[in-house]
Amino acid sequence: MPLGSRDRPLRDQVCEEIRNRIIDGRFAPGDRIVERELAEELAVSRVPVREALRTLRVEGFVEDVARRGVIVRRLDRRDVEELFDVREALEGMACRLATAKADARGLRALQRHLSRADKALRSDDLAAVGKANADFHDEIVQLADHHLLAGMLEPLQGRLHWLFQQVEDPKALCEEHTHLYEAIASGDPDRAAAEAIRHVNHNREVARHLLFPEA
């Protein structure tokens, strides 16, 4: 499956492709990623694959295991809890800032992501639902217009998008995003921050149940 656009560096395209495969489950935890095979499949040299894997190590998606090579990393319960801790703090802040700064154009952008999610839900396209929901959260960060916050979130975005896929009831999640949108549109930063924290903590409980049922 050769990559398309040549407007971006190959390493970035390869990195995005591998990351997306991990997020949507095509590469499962524990799967090996063989540099040579992936380079052949993507019709690129091994150099951008090697560079992409270096980035994904830093992001926490892959790791090196003796006698196995590069594998998709299994996130343990502590990893997930810490991600939710950070997400709760930063997302509450992002929603507070977005509420104070969002204009009509920004609110329409959020509405478009909600509409995409609803359309995908009616088509039973769960991958598209997940993408629209992740884009909804990314849009909030854009509306917050806070460079330091965006910089802190950037190395976490891939893993946060992976968390967005841990969904038990996609319809309920879309309804939560509608409530979050309404809180932001209300112009009340305190309401928006509280709704964001409520949303994150509900998703934390769902992820615990799905990822660690034995606990």
Notable characteristics:
mainly alpha; 4% strand; globular
Kindly describe this structure:
The protein has ten helices and two strands. It starts with 9 loop residues before the first helix and ends with a helix. The protein has a two-stranded antiparallel sheet with strand order 1-2. Helix 1 packs across helix 3 (46-59), helix 5 packs antiparallel against helix 6 (126-144) and helix 9 runs antiparallel to helix 10 (189-211). Helices cover 71% and strands 4% of the residues. The chain has helices at 10-23, 35-42, 46-59, 77-101, 104-122, 126-144, 147-153, 157-164, 170-185, 189-211; strands at 62-65, 69-72. The protein is mainly alpha-helical and 215 residues long.
Strand line-up of the largest beta sheet: 1-2
Total strands: 2
**Coarse structural class:** mainly alpha
- What Rg do the Cα atoms give? 18 Å
Poorly predicted residue ranges: none
Beta content comes to under 5%
Number of H/I helices: 10
User: Mind summarizing the main beta sheet?
Assistant: 2 strands, antiparallel
- Helical content, roughly? over 70%
Mean pLDDT: 91
**What string gives the helices and strands in order?**
HHHEEHHHHHHH
Shape: globular
Could you give the distance between the termini?
A: 40 Å
